[in-house]
Design brief:
The complex is a heterodimer of chains A (259) and B (190). By secondary structure, chain A is of the alpha+beta class. Chain A has 10 helices and 9 strands. In chain A, the strands form 2 sheets. In chain A, strands 1, 2, 3, 4 and 5 form a 5-stranded antiparallel sheet that branches. In chain A, strands 7-8-6-9 form a 4-stranded antiparallel sheet. Chain A starts with a strand and ends in a 6-residue tail after the last strand. With 190 residues, chain B is mostly helical. The chains are: A alpha+beta (259), B mainly alpha (190).
């Protein structure tokens, strides 16, 4: 096909037979170099040459469709075999370019594909309302109860300052307790997985949640071990039930966070 | 287009397994974390003006970001509000720039309400100082270097100051959130 470019989604080894459509509803095909295979489809030069692509990406609707298609193809291929997800926007001039690239990166790709064999990425995000932590601590923490008692027995300026002191202590204890709690969960889940990473907690603006994110983590989990991983997560949540944690488990993803 | 990535909903007491993965997750992975192939590639991600792209995505308020409606199996359905979704359309590296922009917006004074804007700025600074001094006072109280009488006087002063500030906030129609200025990359003031 002349005047076309090649859009690459992911790399696999010995792919199963498949029939699917990708970006712009084009038929997906494979380009192989030895036992490495790139999953690709043709895209129009006029839409995907560098200049056009940069311009097109500024149109959110256009970009969203392409990004979703990119993720969907990679996801479908992943259902049947291990994949190396390519970064969105990996575009080659022709088949030869794809082969050359596979050849040049052969060692790296094979190494990663072997590493990811039989594994999937799972994301675990945990949110907590400070109130729940606070309510629990107010009931259980000796020091806080002591300050509270003092404040109730005092009056005037003393009562005011003691009340403020209680608030300050409570804030510090809430932060400390939340930190300990998620550290425990992260450690247990790390033991149940092949690899783990901590990502930065997202602000409520980015997470879209009213409560604060206190853990943003990803795990590379053996498929056969996933039930155990999940059970461990459940167990930890049971343990910290009184904090009213809210947990989001997402996946299975290609091993994006472990490349 | 169907939901991506495909994920079953499994809901226990506390876990929500997102059926429709948020666009934030999708973007973060496909754009920030995919394998980069060297050589032969026409375009590398560095060439894309990602900042522009994501800011545009954020600010344009795309209406149907999560086009796949959650099918659900009756157990748990996640309903996203467009505004929240729009905000998710951003990479963590960008959250600073975005907060900066949002912060600036908040600081901008409406010419018709200059008085309120000015009151907001002044009260913000007073409130910040009050809080700093108050925590200093608590520390001194804990330190034990003050007499009971001194503590009582200090406490009363702060109590009155705090009440006075509340009154002023009411007069100018300001809430606590209004006084917590967003300093962009520096975070919230208080």
């Amino acid at each position: 096909m002349k005047n076309n470019l090649i859009y690459a989604y992911c790399i696999t080894k010995n792919p199963a037979r498949f029939s699917m459509k990708g970006i712009d509803n084009q038929k997906i095909h494979k380009i192989a170099y030895q036992n490495l295979v790139a999953i690709v489809n043709y895209v129009k030069y006029e839409d995907f040459n560098k200049k056009a692509l940069i311009a097109n990406l500024k149109n959110p609707k256009w970009a969203e469709g392409k990004i979703r298609a990119h993720a969907e193809v990679t996801q479908k291929v992943m259902e049947k075999q291990t994949v190396l997800p390519l970064k969105f926007g990996t575009i080659f001039k022709n088949d030869e370019g794809v082969r050359k690239s596979l050849k040049a990166n052969k060692t790296k790709f094979l190494h990663l594909l072997n590493k990811f064999e039989g594994k999937e990425e799972w994301g675990v995000k945990i949110y907590a309302g400070n109130q729940k932590f606070g309510q629990y601590l107010k009931k259980t923490d000796k020091e806080l109860k002591k300050i509270q008692g003092q404040a109730q027995r005092s009056s005037g300026g003393w009562a005011y300052l003691l009340e403020k002191k209680g608030k300050k202590e409570l804030g510090e204890k809430v932060a400390e307790t939340a930190k300990k709690c998620v550290a425990g969960i992260f450690e247990v889940l790390s033991q149940e997985s092949k690899a783990s990473r901590l990502n930065k907690n997202l602000s409520p603006k980015l997470s879209g949640k009213a409560t604060e994110m206190i853990l943003n983590s990803v795990f590379l989990v053996d498929k056969r071990h996933f039930n155990k991983f999940r059970q461990s997560l459940n167990k930890m949540l049971e343990k910290y039930k009184h904090f009213g944690l809210e947990v989001e488990l997402s996946g299975p993803w290609p091993a994006y966070n472990f490349l | 287009m169907s939901n991506i990535p495909k994920a079953k909903i499994v809901t226990t007491d506390q876990i929500t397994q997102a059926q429709t993965v948020t666009l934030y997750d999708l973007l973060d992975r496909t754009i920030n974390k995919g394998v980069v192939v060297e050589g032969q590639v026409m375009l590398t991600v560095a060439d894309i003006d990602l900042v522009m792209l994501k800011l545009r995505l954020l600010l344009s308020g795309v209406e149907t970001l999560n086009s796949g409606s959650p099918k659900g199996n009756g157990e748990q359905k996640r309903v996203y509000e467009p505004a929240k979704l729009t905000a998710e359309f951003v990479s963590p590296k960008l959250d600073q720039q975005i907060e900066e922009i949002l912060g600036n917006k908040r600081l901008k004074m409406d010419p018709d309400k200059v008085e309120k804007g000015l009151a907001k700025l002044v009260l913000t600074i007073v409130e910040l100082l009050r809080r700093l001094m108050e925590s200093q006072a608590i520390r001194r109280m804990e330190g034990g270097s003050l007499t009971d009488e001194e503590i009582e006087r200090m406490g009363l002063t702060f109590k009155r100051l705090s009440q006075r500030l509340e009154d002023l906030k009411t007069v100018f129609g300001l809430s606590d959130e209004d006084l917590n200025l967003d300093l962009g990359p520096l975070g919230k003031l208080m």
